[in-house]
Amino acid sequence: MLQCTAFTELPEMGARVALMSPADGPGQASEAPELDEFLLCELGEHDDGTEHAAQLWSASAAAGRDLWLFWTEADGRRKFRFEELLPCPAVIHRLSVREGDACVLYDRHPAAHSWDVTDPLADLMAERIREDVRRDRDGGCPA
Ligand SMILES: [Zn+2]
Ligand SMILES: [Zn+2]
């Protein structure tokens, strides 16, 4: 399954509010981490009736929960909401690895678990990095 290709600009004000813990006093907001300007939907391809979802960093999320940004697009406008969710409990055990891979999505997410979602962009990047490594190794080693 391919990854959903939707992305959104981060609604900055909303994100700052979500990232701020209630204990923060004035001035703390400037110490919020750098936020990615664009967020990619992390779900596998899904239908229009399902919200797009991207995980955000959060200092204030309750223990064991992750902060997610959900959005929908309708009539050219995006609607955002934030929600703290438990991680998906699913873990896949492959023969080749001892630990198993945990799904990085949230509990009861739609579409496939993260290990069944292929991100074409990430694969492309990984291939580039492999090529760089190969070139460095070949170049640095006298034949
Ligand atoms: Zn999506
Ligand atoms: Zn999952």
In a few lines, what is going on in this structure?
The chain has 2 helices and 7 strands; from the N terminus they run βαββββββα. It has 143 residues and is an alpha+beta fold.
Please explain how this structure is put together.
This protein is 20% helix and 23% strand. The termini are far apart. 15% of the residues are buried. The chain has one domain (7-140). A hairpin with an 8-residue loop joins strand 6 (91-92) and strand 7. It is built from 2 helices and 7 strands, in the order βαββββββα. It has helices at 12-19, 120-140, and strands at 7-9, 38-40, 52-56, 66-74, 77-85, 91-92, 101-102. The strands form 3 sheets. It has a 3-stranded antiparallel beta sheet, with helices on one face. A two-stranded antiparallel ribbon has the order 1-2. A two-stranded antiparallel ribbon has the order 6-7. With 143 residues, the chain is of the alpha+beta class. The chain binds zinc ion (2 copies).
- How many separate structural domains? 1
Task: Please identify the structural class as seen in this structure.
Answer: alpha+beta
Uncertain ranges? 24-30
What is the total tally of β strands? 7
Query: From N to C, what is the helix and strand string?
Result: EHEEEEEEH
Largest sheet: 3 strands, antiparallel
Q: Distance between the terminal alpha carbons, to the nearest Å? A: 42 Å
Portion in strands: 15-25%
The gyration radius over C-alpha positions equals: 19 Å
Instruction: Bin the helical content.
Output: 10-25%
Ligand species: zinc ion
Number of contiguous helices: 2
Assembly status: single chain
